[in-house]
Write a structure and sequence with these properties.
358 residues; mainly beta; Immunoglobulin-like; paralog of FGE (formylglycine-generating enzyme); 2 domains; four-stranded mixed β-sheet; four-stranded antiparallel β-sheet; 27% strand
């Protein structure tokens, strides 16, 4: 689409453009379905502006909110005003927060839009488990989630010197994901991080009983639904990157050789962010270390859910994403792990934090 086209014989199709929230973007570089407008065209939509140059210079200034935005492109052909409708999906790629933890240690968060998706896996997905029943989930609130898993240096900066519980601890391990953490360690980390950043704590802790204030503006673990939604990033395939995954996308058993010590049979986690991110800019959602989620483990419902937070009680808490110690089957977007919340016996349990978009 390098020039304005004659509208004679042209069908104007509804299209969907993926853009990043914030900044200005050239529609020519995004829309692939024919959508031709001449120099008299204008765009009518609240919160967006257009520079009026026609197809070859059609520029939009994205709104601050994320989600789908409907647009109407008005054009004049042979003296008659016509229009073509299309949808722009405002994606979170360029929006986020950089959090300074002190001493040059930063934490990057990515904004995730509200939306609806199908959680779980289809019956014909290879190597699926029976607890992955598909159901529709709607998240009515956007949120921020860590671009990376929490690292050893981030964990120790928040929790205090000497607090790093990781097995794979060596002179160069600061950028590796913290591991060997219990679910309770993660809850404590979230609260301490909230206090450190001047935010309200999400968790009330009374011994082993933990309650969550969903209206708090502080950090917390993702719900299982939030985790899978962020992992999929609008994908519906077995993995965020398609029907297969390889060493360019994830750290798993076959792709996890290391030359540091200590290690586990010559394998272990790598530094965070070394693999390809998903469509929303999140790294290591598949592999590296399993990530604790808020939810108690239980069977999925078969009916549509809105903002689900899991069972009210249980024996196990959810873990997601698979790890360096797993085969690729456990790295599928729908694969569910679980364990006792006080268990720290594994060298592949870690975390990623979220906070509400308020």
């Amino acid at each position: 689409m390098s020039e304005t086209k004659d509208l004679a014989g042209i069908t104007l199709f509804p299209t969907k453009a993926i853009i990043s929230s914030g900044g200005t973007f050239n529609l020519d570089e995004i829309v692939v379905t024919a959508n031709y407008c001449d120099s008299t065209s204008e765009v009518v939509s609240t919160g967006l502006s257009w520079d009026g140059k026609g197809v070859n210079g059609m520029m939009f200034s994205a709104p601050t909110s994320m989600g789908e935005v409907s647009l109407t492109c008005l054009y004049t052909y042979q003296g008659e005003v016509k229009n073509a409708d299309f949808t722009m999906v405002v994606a979170p790629n360029s929006r986020g927060i950089e959090v300074d933890l002190g001493d040059g240690i930063m934490m990057s968060l990515v904004a995730i839009p509200l939306g609806t998706f199908i959680m779980g896996s289809p019956p014909d997905e290879p190597n699926r488990n029976t607890d992955e029943t598909q159901h529709r989930v709607t998240l009515t609130r956007g949120f921020y989630i860590g671009r990376f898993q929490i690292t050893q240096e981030q964990y120790e900066k928040v929790m205090g010197f000497g607090s790093n519980p990781s097995y794979f601890k060596h002179s160069g391990s600061g950028k590796q994901p913290v591991e060997s953490v219990t679910w309770y360690n993660c809850i404590d980390f979230c609260n301490k991080l909230s206090v450190k950043q001047g935010l309200s704590k999400a968790y009330e802790i009374n011994g082993t009983t933990v309650s969550c204030d969903w209206n708090a503006n502080g950090y917390r673990l993702p719900t299982e639904a939030e985790w899978e939604y962020a992992c999929r990033a609008n994908s519906s395939t077995a993995y965020f990157c398609g029907s297969r995954i390889d060493e360019s996308n994830a750290v798993y058993w076959e792709s996890s050789p290391v030359n540091y010590s200590p290690n586990f049979s010559g394998r272990g986690p790598h530094n965070v962010g070394g693999k390809t991110a998903n469509a929303w800019g999140l790294h290591d959602m598949s592999g590296s270390v399993w990530e604790w989620c808020w939810d108690w483990y239980g069977n999925y419902p078969i009916t549509a859910q809105t903002n689900p937070v899991g069972e009210k009680s249980g024996f196990y808490r959810i873990l997601r994403g698979g790890s360096w110690n797993n085969d690729v089957d456990e790295l599928r977007s729908a694969c569910r792990g679980y364990n006792y919340p006080a268990n720290s016996d594994y060298y592949y349990f870690g975390l990623r934090v979220v906070r509400p978009a308020v």
